[in-house]
Specification:
Transcription Regulator spoIIAA; 5-stranded mixed barrel; 23% strand; 6-stranded parallel beta sheet; single chain; alpha/beta
Length: 438
């Protein structure tokens, strides 16, 4: 039996694509390799949001090339966003790569693999949207976590943020019909999944291209599936987060009290240059509305430091938002120019050498805020979905997406349990098992 190894870079959409590719390979008779060195097929699923993942991909390919010394017939493939944007460039830099394909034709993997195994270069990068891409949804996912699962509900993005490559690598927004989503959710529940994570580049824009459905309606439909214990969704654009969706979040018991809502920058001047379509005030009004309906909601966000033209005064506006909102978690990055985006032609910040320090300072501020938020959980009783067992402890997450390590209990994988938090760390919680929920 042939073995495969998939290395994934990037967002939850890439993770879900890799899980689907694993499902395709399982249907072809492949089994997962414990290590890339024993694989007959290596797939590198790539991200192109920032420059660093690009570099990591080329570095990984240089290492994976060694597999051909042991197994000359081994196939190495590159797919995903970087492949969509620069597939032929990858072939020039890594001519030993046998297969390259983009983001909308993953379902062609069986044919491409057959071509590569015959000794030919299997290259298929489709510029337009492949109208048959929904065939991918028919394949099962192969997941490391048996109890939580991603479900793609919308692909692509219609926003034109000036720094973002996603509209060019993933295309325009394409929503799946509710019936198709619900069918996949039912399959997952039958497979033992308890938590459904609805995903998309802009998940809260779901249904706008269909004309007859909205995202909040999808939330209610998923919640009606028997066996769904929890629902999360990622990532939404602030402009598309409306009050109806927030009300649904508060009304549906399965929807977790957690939301990732990217702000990217706190300065109105920079937000305008990014073409984000909202001001700091408008963003904070959304946060206020969320906390009105869901007082205990945990929040996370994305922040770009050093966007072209950012001054120290602009940076301080971002710090102001950080301190006012008090996010539970922040994903902060230094601005990375992406070829083909409008921002790539903009002048850099007034003091580019200061960007690294600003980023470091912001991350340190957030570490203290995260620790402060975690301390609020001390001696609290929380609901935890047990996802993993590590030696003598169980690992799971709260509804607010806090990682919890707990002692006690056996055969509780996939179960919802009550846990009393007795120790708080900077990035996780520790507790003792009180009872299993029915």
């Amino acid at each position: 039996m042939k073995k495969y190894y998939i290395r994934t870079f990037g967002c939850q959409m890439n993770v879900n694509d890799s899980q689907k590719m694993a499902g395709i390979l399982k249907s072809l008779g492949y089994e997962p390799a414990r290590d890339w060195k024993e694989a007959d097929l290596i797939l590198v699923n790539t991200c192109s949001v920032r420059e660093k993942p690009d570099q990591k991909v080329l570095s990984a390919l240089g290492e994976f090339k060694k597999v051909k010394n042991k197994n000359p017939d081994a196939v190495i493939g590159v797919c995903g966003c970087l492949a969509q944007r620069a597939g032929y460039e990858i072939l020039q830099k890594a001519p030993f790569v046998d297969m390259v394909f983009g983001t909308t034709n993953i379902h062609h993997l069986p044919q491409l693999l057959k071509e590569a195994e015959a000794g030919n270069k299997a290259v298929e990068i489709i510029e337009d949207i492949d109208q048959s891409e929904t065939e991918l949804d028919r394949y099962p996912t192969v997941r490391d976590n048996r109890y939580t699962a991603y479900v793609t509900v919308i692909r692509g993005c219609d926003k034109k943020c000036t720094y973002c490559i996603v509209p060019y690598t993933r295309g325009k927004e394409r929503s799946r019909r509710i019936g198709e989503v619900i069918q996949e959710v039912k399959w997952l529940v039958d497979d033992g999944v308890k938590e459904i994570h609805l995903i998309g580049q802009n998940v809260t824009a779901y249904g706008k291209d269909l004309g007859d459905v909205r995202f909040y309606e999808l939330l209610y439909a998923v919640a009606d599936v028997e066996g769904v214990e929890r629902i999360r969704f990622t990532t939404g654009h602030p402009r598309d987060l409306d009050e109806e969706t927030i009300k649904a979040m508060a009304d549906i018991p399965q929807v977790c009290e957690y939301l990732h809502l990217p702000i990217q920058a706190g300065s109105d001047r920079i937000l305008k240059a990014m073409d984000r379509g909202y001001t700091q005030k408008e963003y904070l009004e959304k946060i206020e509305l969320l906390r009105k309906y869901i007082p205990d909601i945990a929040l996370s966000t994305d922040i770009i430091v050093g966007f072209p033209g950012e001054t120290y005064k602009d940076y301080l506006e971002t710090v102001k938002v950080l301190k006012e909102v008090e996010y539970d978690q922040v994903f902060a990055f230094k601005y990375s120019p992406r070829p083909g985006t409008p921002a790539a032609n903009m002048e850099l910040t007034e003091n580019p050498e200061d960007v690294g320090k600003r980023l470091s300072d912001l991350i340190n501020m957030q570490k203290e805020i995260t620790f402060k938020k975690n301390r609020e959980y001390e001696n609290k009783v929380v609901e935890v979905l047990v996802e993993e067992q590590k030696e003598d402890e169980l690992v799971g997450r709260t509804r607010t997406n806090k990682l919890v390590h707990l002692k006690g209990g056996h055969n509780l994988l996939g179960e919802l349990v009550k846990v009393k938090i007795n120790k708080v760390n900077r990035f996780s919680l520790e507790g003792e098992l009180l009872q299993q929920l029915v």
